[in-house]
């Protein structure tokens, strides 16, 4: 098929989002062969090709219509949007949906010996960051004035080098901060990976594939935590057991042969099923309890 009829999605080439992005596409059913140049993967069973790039380039590639879709952090999306609106332009990409991976936060962190007593302590200070527009918005919203020192990387060593008094950077566990004698004091932005798309209307066939892909992504996100649970119980315990099943809609109830008026209950639980739940189920009269992972789901 010609390029114009195939969808193209940009994902991070090598970094924190790469594995989860590829895993998501594979769970959506994509089989691909990796091109010689390692820059592209060609979908073998769907008209969907994957382009591997630096995460910062993803919004631009979608905006310039080189790719129809992209998976990138909210942090990158927001910074890009704010930078554009500061220049008086509209972004040429749309946020479609947030994903359940790539979670992190953009936070302000101060050196261990910094006397931090709430936000006013950062007024008039120099703050190093690679997210100048997002930080500027935060300062504006909190009526603070401070000097933003825009760097392209290695933000966490800026205070030790004397280039800044504090920093505003991405954090997930905080171990990088403590290794650099910094401590997190406030969150500027909560982030996770998200799917973006071109606002340009797509030809029917491509639009149809985007729709199918979105449904599959929904399905993949729903099954991650879901479990299929099966158990036996006396019919009289049905109500109590139903209340104990976490996040399940209407369970299937099947009468069992034999004496004792027993039923089999089958249900999809949209939350993880913990040992405590199983113990409560047993106490309510359940037996032969089985909990199975759900592989695919289509609402
Ligand atoms: P690239 O070479 O693609 O520009 P990078 O160094 O900008 O790579 P990574 O450090 O791999 O990128 O981070 C990519 C994205 O992963 C971030 O923009 C953010 O959305 C997300 N992320 C999740 N946890 C963290 C974290 N602890 N630190 C930084 N980014 C994180
Ligand atoms: Zn990057």
Description:
By secondary structure, the chain is α+β, with helices and mostly antiparallel strands. It folds into three domains: 130 residues, Periplasmic binding protein-like II (D-Maltodextrin-Binding Protein, domain 2, 3-Layer(aba) Sandwich), CATH 3.40.190; 88 residues, 3-Layer(aba) Sandwich (D-Maltodextrin-Binding Protein, domain 2); 67 residues, 2-Layer Sandwich (Alpha-Beta Plaits). It has eight helices and 16 strands. The strands form three sheets. It has a seven-stranded mixed β-sheet. Strand 14 and strand 15 form a beta hairpin. Helix 3 packs across helix 4. 31% of the residues are buried. Bound molecules: adenosine-5'-triphosphate and zinc ion. The site of zinc ion has 3 residues, from loops.
Tell me the name of the CATH homologous superfamily of the largest domain.
Periplasmic binding protein-like II
The helix content is 25-40%
Radius of gyration (CA) equals 25 Å
Hetero groups bound?
A: adenosine-5'-triphosphate, zinc ion
Instruction: Give the biggest sheet.
Output: 7 strands, mixed
Roughly what is the average pLDDT, rounded to an integer?
93
CATH architectural group of the largest domain: 3-Layer(aba) Sandwich
Alpha plus pi helix count: 8
CATH class wording of the largest domain:
Alpha Beta
- Give the terminus-to-terminus CA distance: 30 Å
In terms of DSSP E residues, the strand content is 25-35%
Look at the helices and sheets and give the structural class.
alpha+beta
Low-confidence stretches: none
CATH fold node name of the largest domain: D-Maltodextrin-Binding Protein, domain 2
Write down the domain tally. 3
């Amino acid at each position: 098929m010609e390029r114009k009829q195939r969808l193209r999605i940009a994902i991070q080439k090598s970094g924190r989002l790469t594995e989860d992005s590829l895993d998501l596409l594979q769970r959506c059913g994509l089989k691909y062969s990796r091109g010689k140049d390692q820059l592209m993967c060609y979908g073998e069973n769907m008209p969907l090709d994957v382009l591997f790039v630096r995460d910062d380039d993803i919004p631009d590639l979608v905006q310039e219509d080189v790719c129809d879709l992209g998976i990138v952090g909210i942090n990158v999306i927001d910074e890009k949007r704010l930078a554009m609106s500061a220049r008086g332009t509209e972004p040429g990409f749309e946020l479609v949906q947030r994903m359940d991976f790539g979670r992190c936060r953009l936070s302000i962190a101060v050196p261990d010996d910094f006397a931090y007593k709430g936000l006013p302590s950062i007024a008039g200070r120099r703050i190093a960051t690679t997210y100048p527009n997002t930080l500027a918005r935060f300062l504006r919203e909190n009526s603070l004035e401070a000097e933003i020192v825009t760097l392209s990387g290695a933000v966490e060593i800026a205070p030790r080098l004397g280039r800044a008094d504090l920093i505003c950077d991405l954090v997930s566990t905080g171990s990088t901060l403590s290794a650099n004698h910094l401590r997190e004091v406030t969150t500027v932005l909560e982030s996770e990976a998200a799917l973006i798309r071109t606002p340009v209307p797509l030809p029917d066939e491509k639009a149809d594939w985007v729709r199918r892909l979105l449904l599959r992504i929904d399905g993949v996100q729903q099954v991650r935590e879901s479990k299929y649970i099966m158990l036996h119980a006396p019919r009289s315990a049905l109500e109590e057991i139903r209340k104990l099943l976490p996040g399940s809609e209407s369970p299937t109830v099947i009468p069992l042969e034999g004496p004792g008026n027993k039923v089999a209950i089958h249900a999809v639980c949209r939350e993880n099923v913990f040992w405590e739940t199983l113990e409560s189920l047993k106490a309510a009269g359940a037996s032969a309890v089985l909990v199975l992972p759900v592989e695919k789901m289509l609402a």
